[in-house]
């Protein structure tokens, strides 16, 4: 006999189903093309159920982005704990690059969302808060892995993280345009010039 879910378990299960459907629809249709109707249908719910979990499409996207950020921060912390110095930094950067390459469709949707957010001050504030937290966590991982190797970034760690994120976003756009020429070896060369002994 199947065990009935508690109300809390049912709400959490529904939330996970909606988030999974939202991710699929965002990847298929892009941020602008995705609709709450399509997400609700893909999750097997009414639009009302989606609204009971999330205030709208931006809330759904930010929830997915927050989850992704949390997962990446945990992975980065694990890498930083297992490595040290310049090789550890390279491993962090290689992992970041691999994630971007494997999730290129997500990177495109994120770019689309970021442009939409610039036209909505409150949404842009919410995104900036999450993005800033993501960069700070990355900066912490970088600082940790370098310090254990007797190194530090030439610039403050938060600025270093912003430079890396900007390079990543720019590279995604260059790849989308078919004009990308930078290779991982170029990033390695650049990064070695951005660290110094403690």
Automatic annotation (TrEMBL):
The keyword Transcription applies. The lineage of its organism: Bacteria, Bacillati, Actinomycetota, Actinomycetes, Pseudonocardiales. The keyword Transcription applies. This is TetR/AcrR family transcriptional regulator. InterPro entries: BetI_C (IPR039538), Homeodomain-like_sf (IPR009057), HTH-type_TetR-like_transc_reg (IPR050109), HTH_TetR (IPR001647), Tet_transcr_reg_TetR-rel_C_sf (IPR036271). Residues 35-54 bind DNA. It comes from Pseudonocardia hispaniensis. Residues 12-72 form the HTH tetR-type domain. Pfam families: TetR_C_6, TetR_N. Keywords: DNA-binding, Repressor, Transcription, Transcription regulation.
């Amino acid at each position: 006999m199947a065990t009935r879910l508690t109300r809390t378990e049912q709400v959490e299960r529904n939330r996970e189903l909606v988030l999974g459907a939202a991710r699929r629809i965002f990847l298929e249709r892009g941020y602008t093309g995705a609709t709450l109707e399509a997400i609700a249908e893909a999750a097997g719910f009414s639009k009302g159920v989606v609204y009971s979990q999330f205030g709208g499409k931006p809330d759904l996207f930010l929830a997915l982005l927050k989850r992704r950020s949390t997962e990446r921060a945990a992975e980065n912390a694990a890498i930083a704990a297992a490595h040290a110095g310049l090789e550890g930094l390279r491993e962090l950067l290689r992992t970041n690059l691999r994630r971007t390459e494997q999730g290129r469709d997500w990177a495109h949707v994120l770019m689309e969302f970021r442009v939409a957010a610039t036209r909505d001050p409150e949404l842009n504030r919410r995104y900036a808060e999450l993005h800033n937290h993501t960069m700070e966590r990355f900066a912490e991982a970088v600082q940790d892995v370098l310090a254990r190797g007797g190194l530090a970034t030439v610039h403050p760690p938060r600025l270093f993280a912003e430079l890396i994120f900007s390079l990543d976003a720019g590279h995604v756009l260059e790849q989308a345009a078919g004009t990308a020429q930078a290779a991982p070896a170029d990033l390695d060369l650049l990064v070695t010039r951005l660290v110094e002994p403690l």
